[in-house]
Amino acid sequence: MPTETTSKRGRPGYDQQSVLRIAVDVFNRHGYDATSMGILAENLGISKSAIYHHVPSKGDLLKLALDHALGGLEAILEQPEAMTGPADARLEFVLRQTIAVLVERLPFVTLLLRLRGNTDIERDALERRRAFDHKVAALISAAREDGSLRQDIDPRTVTRLLFGTINSIVEWYKPGGSLSPEKLADDVITMAFDGLHAAA
Amino acid sequence: MPTETTSKRGRPGYDQQSVLRIAVDVFNRHGYDATSMGILAENLGISKSAIYHHVPSKGDLLKLALDHALGGLEAILEQPEAMTGPADARLEFVLRQTIAVLVERLPFVTLLLRLRGNTDIERDALERRRAFDHKVAALISAAREDGSLRQDIDPRTVTRLLFGTINSIVEWYKPGGSLSPEKLADDVITMAFDGLHAAA
């Protein structure tokens, strides 16, 4: 978008992506329901009408944000490494990539994970998230049936605990710190599959 | 409290514990900030003045609820099994008991884990929660220094991932279902310490 246009309407240099990034931060801080277009405008330092220049409504911002999170996750399952080979290797690939998407798109995935499902947009997103979770759960079951995962834990429990571990990363991980996304993924995979006990 | 007294003031049979339990459910559903005494009264089916008979304020209900969650957690660390013996056995004991308290006091711990820290009561509770977390983190470090936990993961990451796994239980565990609290604790400990890979 040419600067001439934006500078006429508010703080120059905003494009839809910057508006979206700031909106997602505000949603995560205040909750989506509690965030009005007025609060958004205040945080962006532009007028409400300038926001409408970028997106027609608050719901559209939410939709764009959730689509960015879900699109990243869904694309993982279409990679060749997720589709061919032994189930346990596919599972490891999918979990590593899930962590990578989560870290790379941290505020967007945070927003997705905190959804309450009060609007159609939220319910659609939760539906897509459940579809993703079900595909990962199917991989876990396949790896267990192959005999590569232990048999003494119900696969539903395994699925819940793995997602619990991975999703909790949004609550504490600080991008740019001493723990790189790759080492984080290594650590999660090591703990989940090999356990914390030192080798005997 | 004698029934004569309560029946004069509203629905008979409520005591402070029942009021507290219902209040915690309402806080978890609507968020503490968004819950007024009016909403509480509506959910209890009694008048606002009848609530004031049980507790002086919404903050007092929050304080009682958080104290129930934190009291349960803090008591774990005072058990002999948490205080003596090898660090890895103490750690395992503490994690198992943490899961037991979490399941037994599920709505109370859920409330604790979702705190945003907007009031002094919340900040005091978060302070106590941090103190608990630090003591568990110290056990993790001690078990690692003993050589019983693997050395290739930073103890801070181990702490975050273990708490992430355990705390996420509040999001999905249904008491009274086919997964008992004891089996759940076994599963978490097995996955975290021995890993999901089938023994070779």
UniProtKB/TrEMBL annotation, chains A, B:
The keyword Signal does not apply. InterPro entries: Homeodomain-like_sf, HTH-type_TetR-like_transc_reg, HTH_TetR, KstR2_TetR_C, Tet_transcr_reg_TetR-rel_C_sf. It comes from the Bacteria. Residues 36-55 bind DNA. GO terms for molecular function: DNA-binding transcription factor activity; transcription cis-regulatory region binding. Residues 13-73 form the HTH tetR-type domain. Keywords: DNA-binding, Transcription, Transcription regulation. The keyword Transcription applies. This is TetR/AcrR family transcriptional regulator.
